[in-house]
Amino acid sequence: MTEDSDAKLVSRFRSGDESALTDIFQRYETPLFQFLRGILRDQHMAEDALQETLVRALEHLDGVDDNHLRGWLFTVAYHQAMLVKRRRKVRYCDVEEQGTEVSDAAPSPLGLAEMRDDAVRLRELLEKLPPNQREVIRQRVYEGKRFREIAAELGCPLNTALARMHEGLKRLRLLWEQNHA
Hints:
Number of domains: 2
CATH topology of the largest domain: Rna Polymerase Sigma Factor, Chain: A
Radius of gyration: 19 Å
Shape: globular
């Protein structure tokens, strides 16, 4: 691992050096995981929150203040932990309230048709992505796999799987916007 400062690592990442991402993840993966495990008191939930933290970091790293990377990462991790706790609380409440009346929130027939059209368009746009990006997105979104599982299956490092997801989603967004312009 490099001894570059956080600011230097962010700068390298912004200039297109993907190895900077590896260095950032190696530097912060263990402390972030320990932090999350301390908050959540559950290894699996901490792993999920860590993955989401790293995804958020990847999505928003361009906008981070170079000199505050560590604090920003821990803030993102904290918010992910709170989301996990909130979801766990909602699930617990849902189980206790079974049998109570639930409102029908089904979309209208027109809404369903639009959703189907969007899903078809999205699948078509996915086919335009490079195979390695398409496969990571497919396994994460359609199969619900964790990034560690995807990386192991594809034989690549975790940060590579995360980077492929990030780049693939950016390309998909661009393609979607071009398709809807």
